[in-house]
């Protein structure tokens, strides 16, 4: 369901997009650095989950309808920024005793998974990206419908994105391992993530969304 003539261009474009630093990369890298590779892996899967949801919405045409409404995009932007600000506040006000033990991170990993899902779904630029990007590679030479082609393109994008993010987690997690063994750093790791969420909130709230 993907035009093989367009596939090389599509793959090249996706790789280029993955290498551009963005809010997803910041969240996954900082999660891995602050809490370890397991949490970073969960955050990566959270990002992939939101990508699959956006792919399905784009294939069904739902996201296109939302993207045509300036009010809906503005509401998404405000909700996304507010959600990230709440996450920032929750992290910053946490006491040092809340910092998790390295061997007991399962609950934290699930929390970061949910946060990664929600932060991406509430980012209007992510929705617009799927609406504007995927249709560029829909071919009229195939018998498959545009929705089926967009679904296939989106799935490929998400698989490549997940692979890239897991590689990022492995690299950053290895670099951050000495920090995780430092009691001083672990006392402030929640505060660090709070600053990251605050930066992401400002990123969304200060951005201008073009519909």
From TrEMBL:
Keyword Mitochondrion in annotation: no
Subcellular localization(s) per the UniProt record: Cell membrane
Record bears the keyword Transmembrane: yes
UniProt keywords, alphabetically: Cell membrane, Membrane, Transmembrane, Transmembrane helix
Record's bilayer topology term: Multi-pass membrane protein
Pfam families associated with the record: LysE (PF01810)
InterPro entries with a match to the protein in the record: LeuE-type
TM helices/strands, residue ranges: 52-76, 120-138, 150-172, 192-209
Protein name per Swiss-Prot or TrEMBL: LysE family translocator
Lineage of the species this protein comes from: Bacteria, Pseudomonadati, Pseudomonadota, Gammaproteobacteria, Alteromonadales
């Amino acid at each position: 369901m993907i035009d093989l003539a367009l596939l090389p261009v599509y793959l090249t474009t996706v790789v280029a997009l993955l290498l551009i630093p963005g809010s997803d990369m910041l969240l996954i890298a900082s999660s891995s650095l602050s809490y370890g590779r397991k949490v970073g892996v969960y955050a990566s899967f959270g990002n992939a989950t939101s990508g699959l949801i956006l792919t399905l919405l784009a294939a069904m045409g739902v996201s296109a309808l939302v993207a045509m409404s300036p009010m809906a995009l503005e509401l998404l932007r405000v909700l996304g920024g507010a959600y990230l600000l709440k996450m920032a506040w929750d992290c910053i006000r946490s006491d040092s005793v809340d910092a998790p033990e390295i061997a007991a991170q399962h609950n934290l990993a699930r929390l970061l998974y949910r946060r990664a899902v929600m932060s991406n779904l509430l980012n209007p630029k992510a929705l617009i990206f799927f609406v504007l990007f995927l249709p560029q590679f829909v071919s009229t030479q195939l018998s498959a419908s545009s929705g089926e082609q967009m679904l296939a393109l989106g799935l490929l994008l998400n698989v490549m994105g997940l692979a890239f993010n897991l590689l990022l987690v492995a690299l950053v997690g290895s670099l951050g391992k000495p920090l995780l063994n430092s009691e001083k750093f672990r006392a402030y790791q929640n505060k660090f993530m709070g600053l990251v969420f605050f930066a992401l909130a400002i990123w969304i709230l200060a951005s201008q969304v073009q519909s």
